[in-house]
Amino acid sequence: MSPLRLPLCLLAIAGLAAGRGQAAEDAPAPDRFVELPPLMVAEQVNGPPWRYVEIPGLEVLSRCRDGTTLHLVEEMYRLQQLLAVMLPPDLQAKRAVPDTAVLYSEESKPVVAQEVVADLLRDGKDAGGESRRSSRGVGYRSMPNLRLTDRDATSAFFILEEGGFAQAQLALTPDYIRYAIKSRTPSPPAWFVEGFVDLYDAGDFERNPITLSPVEWVSAAETKNLKRDPDYPRSLLPLAEFFSSPGPGADAALWRGQAALFLRWAMEGDDHPRQPALWKFVARASAEPVTEEVFRECFGLGYVDAQERMSDYLSNAVLGTLRLKPGKLAALPRLTPRPATDLEIARIKGDLERLEIGWVKPRFPQLVPKYAEQARRTLMRAYDKGERDPRLQAVIGLCECDAGNDAGARKFLEAAVQGGVVRPRASYELARLRYAEAQKAPDAPGGRLSAAQATSVLQPLVTAWRQPPALLEMYALTADVWARSVPAFTRKNLAMLDEGVAYFPRNAPLIYQAAWLNARQGFKPEAEALIVRGLKVGTDPAFQTRFEQLRVNLAAMAQPAAAP
Predict the structure, then answer these.
(1) Of the candidates 72, 141, 142, 79, which has an alpha carbon nearest to the alpha carbon of residue 101?
(2) Helices (H) and strands (E) in the chain — how many of each?
(3) 171: which DSSP letter?
(4) What whole-number distance in Å separates Cα of residue 52 and Cα of residue 64?
(5) Residue 119 to residue 13: CA distance in whole angstroms
(6) How far apart, in whole angstroms, are the C-alpha atoms of residue 374 and residue 394?
């Protein structure tokens, strides 16, 4: 049995539900379907009750049988441990907010409100860009599974055909692996992301040890030739060019093949002696430009020697497997799904429905009000019963932000942050709203913010800075507030921006803001170091000019200057 692939951060299953249309049986079958997130005009009252179960990092709300739910959760727990065998947790994304998943059985699946959608889209465009008036025979149906991400959390929806699911073998998809790596801060370089995706996709995780199949090199024909003749000519990109490349260029197949080959070579050998060097190199490549000196410090050899060894290794890689011993996996504590509370249903299901707003907004903007209405209905059902859980209020506030209703979001975000919610984006959105208010009536001369205003704006971020993931918006907002306020900052204050630059080392605008603020406060060595960094990463000519101009003016910026 081939494994089923899970395309989500923690879970979502592709191809487990047929996604059948919901047209009446006596109606003509549509010529084609447009798949949408479920849009319900009323909460389902029939079907199995909601059940709840959690493990570290994951909350599940399920309308499936307990056995189905537990099988999925247990498999995900196992797969996460096996992933850590190949990819150290330090190189994976971290989130303070648990991922969530909403499970439906095929029998109790939600539906798309056909008439509502058709009416809303009548004068708009369908998913293919065709006028809705001229689109005949178009039906709408719920997507069988959907992964939705926010800047600090991930939620999933999927429908399971429970009949054969209990015996299914599960595996993570390339989409999940890519997300788990790219979402880390600082983000690893493209060669590691894509190389690891291909490496992982070659793995058989039902075996012990984990077994990676032989390498497919560039093309089937090239692979066949290398298998027949170990001395068959092969070419690799020079490592200096390969590591500095932002991604696949003209020869995408060679670049991608070399990315996987390099990682496999670094993981090969008895007891995998090069693995520690690989993880050290990837960590450094995520935070600083790669040079041959950095490579040598990690691996103990230069580019030419390493490339020759990789070229020689290729002949073996197309023929042999790579085995990784996982050791003893931690046992999952005994789990027992229980009835979900009204609060859990509102918070988890409502957050999923909130994220659906962002999915439909660029595709079907006419549907945004209906999806926002659906999310509000779910969320407010618990709130109107007196629930004031900070997590629920954070989601309500974010829902209003996503629906474009900042005024309605404010009171919920204030209550959530005051209640100590762990939700980095909720803290950021509250700071953003306070900043917008302060800008309308600045208290200091010259249209600047006073110390009290700056403190009030940034107060929601005090604890959120310690909650992963790091959000670029937080650091950018902090720099903007400081640039437009009167207080003099110490190096201890500005060290917060050093942290932001470390998390986002390739973001030229943030580096420039940090350099300008250090220069304004007279911290010239720190400003100069940031300018040097910015000139390396700011390839845009406009930013190059700004960094150069800041360097020229650095000596004269010991006193406060105008905001950039």
Answers:
(1) 72
(2) 23, 13
(3) E
(4) 10
(5) 31
(6) 17
pLDDT score of 317 more than 90: yes
The count of other CB atoms within 10 Å of the CB of residue 413 is 30
- C-alpha to C-alpha distance for 419 and 23, rounded to whole angstroms: 46
Q: Cβ-count burial of 232 within 10 angstroms (0-12 exposed, 13-18 middle, 19+ buried)?
A: middle
Pick from 520, 497, 518: nearest CA to 507: 497
Residue 137 backbone dihedrals phi, psi, to 5 degrees: 75, 25
Concatenated DSSP letters of 363-398: T-GGGHHHHHHHHHHHHHHHHTTT---HHHHHHHHH
Alpha helices by DSSP H, listed for 249-291, are 252-267, 275-287
Cα 142 to the center of its chain, rounded Å: 23
Q: Is 516:551 a contact under the CB 8 Å cutoff?
A: no
**DSSP code of residue 288:** S
pLDDT digits (tens, 9 = 90+) for 271-314: 889 999 999 999 999 999 999 999 999 999 999 999 999 999 99
Q: What is the token pair recorded at 7? A: 């395309």
Domain ranges of the chain: 4-172+332-339, 214-320, 488-564
Is 259 within 8 Å of 195 (Cβ atoms)? yes
- C-alpha span between 420 and 16 (Å, rounded): 39
Average pLDDT taken over every residue of the chain: 87
Highest mean pLDDT among 18-32, 137-151, 441-455: 441-455
**Among candidate residues 52, 310, 322, 6, the one with its CA nearest the CA of residue 180:** 6
H or E stretch including 406? helix 406-418
Q: 3-state SS string over 71-103?
A: HHHHHHHHHHHHHHHHCCHHHCCCCCCCEEEEE
